[in-house]
Amino acid sequence: MKALIIYKSKTGFTKWYAEFIAKEVDGNLMDFKEVTAEIMSGYDVVVYGGGLYAGMINGYKKAKEMFEKSSANRFILFATGGTPNEATKEIEEVWKNNLSAEELQAIPHFYMQGGICYEKMSFSNRTIMKMMSKVLDKKKDKDSTEEGFAQAIKSSYDITSSEYAKPLIKCLLEGIQHRH
Ligand SMILES: Cc1cc2nc3c(=O)[nH]c(=O)nc-3n(C[C@H](O)[C@H](O)[C@H](O)COP(=O)(O)O)c2cc1C
Questions:
Q1: How far apart are CA 51 and CA 81, in angstroms?
Q2: Domain residues for 129?
């Protein structure tokens, strides 16, 4: 049975990973805008991906609610962000802030590093990022995390790699094999 891979993506990073996953597992790919609970019900597994915006996973709550209304069996979550995958402590915080203790146990969740794309950003988000960049630049006594962040958000960068999608793909395929 096919998996449904859903993305909500403002600047393309999450979409890129969703496309890769859908191709690797021969799943169907959809923009969250087009998805309904009825559509989800046509699948055994639903994968949802969203970008991190101020620490929150874009669209996760709505997608989870929709999944609960549907008759699909499994929900797998991924998030993309500007934070590199090595920043495991920061990523742990993201999961804790977005998922309940119960969800942390029940929902397989994966982080995939993306980047920053000023060219595709909305005007308001570009303004926010530029302001943050200025404030951080001026701040004295930055700790190493702040220093790294200040450097990182100065301009666009892309640190996506299919490597980071592999753990999710493995989880997805193992689940399918166990069922048959
Ligand atoms: C306003 C704004 C806030 C962001 N906040 C975070 C954040 O809290 N943590 C993070 O790792 N990345 C953050 N990012 C970077 C995005 O999460 C990253 O570009 C992500 O891959 C975007 O995915 P999308 O293009 O699919 O929407 C932020 C970007 C913008 C524009």
A1: 6
A2: 118-155
